[in-house]
Automatic annotation (TrEMBL):
This is Peptidoglycan bridge formation glycyltransferase FemA/FemB family protein. One of its GO terms (molecular function) is aminoacyltransferase activity. Keywords: Acyltransferase, Cell shape, Cell wall biogenesis/degradation, Peptidoglycan synthesis, Transferase. InterPro entries: Acyl_CoA_acyltransferase, FEMABX, PG_Glycine_Bridge_Synth. The keyword Plastid does not apply. It holds the Pfam family FemAB. One of its GO terms (biological process) is peptidoglycan biosynthetic process. Belongs to the FemABX family.
Amino acid sequence: MPSVRPISPTEHREHLATLPSASFLQTPGWGKVKSEWRSESLGWFDDAGDLVGVGLVLYRKLPRLKRYLAYLPEGPIIDWTGDDLAGWLDPMVAHLRKQGAFAVRIGPPVVTRRWSTAQIKEGIADPEVHLLSQVPPVDRSVKGARTVAQLHELGWRYQGVVGGFAAGQPQFVFQVPLRNADGTPRTEDEVLKGMNQLWRRNIKRAAKEGVEVTVGTREDLPAFHELYVHTAQRDHFTPRPLRYFETMHDALLEDSDEPDRFRLWLARHDGDLVASTISIRVGEHSWYSYGASSTEKREVRGSNAVQWAMIRDAIAAGAAVYDLRGITETLDADDSHVGLIQFKVGTGGEAVEYAGEWDLPINRPLYRAFQLYLARRG
């Protein structure tokens, strides 16, 4: 059984650099972004004393009590393939208990199912289908099923989806594979041909209209944020403050030798900012993280242009996947969320389900009180 102890951010960072990729939510820098939480880097060590796993823990304090929810978003980064998850998770829980955790929440970075673009389109068109889970997947992961079964056996509690989205990080995402089945890189032409006709037409339209996409700097974040607030007002969500994005920019770039760990993208038409996005890359995984678009000049298709620029950049960087992040599970044509899926489906990728988030109560009365608090707040 591996032992667990705190490690330095440098040890954490150096271990991640040996892996093909890991979630950016499990990098040491993410702890600086989530400043309202206390963060800690944990390391798993084998009998020889070698570091074999890492995790970023975010501690959220309960009001008036020195008790914490210990949260490892999209982590920890351990070997999830074996039959003895207890050997990895039990020493972690023992450590977190000593730190005052009343419960632990994890998000195993393990895929359970995948659906092709064609399957999703058929599901949306079928009036009898309302959820992605009603469509037989193109792939079921044995590794994923084994992980879920073991978590149940070990007493972890699955955190269900509320209103189409998980309570924390998304369980369903949409990804564009950038490598073929044999592992060879896909070319720009291959990825473009995989998109639907509307996406290809919109990318051509943006080029014809003269939309220019550039990589911005920290000084461009206020312009992004102004457009982002406009988007939030139009689409009825609560925007994050400018300081949040400035902190994300600084923390993620300071945390990595990769100059494209965080990138700000700006799409302009005749000098007007029509779309702006943020991408994040860790190793072979590239994410579309935040996006904003203008209500004016939508006909020039700035959003498609900036997405295509990010995809091309991910291909050039040797990424294995371009991740458009969360989607809801709904395939109901009358649901307002289905438009988001349809936009992402146009890229020709696939819907991917992860194992989701799981809680382990340590202090059951406090955990029940915490659940009641979340239910009232929701």
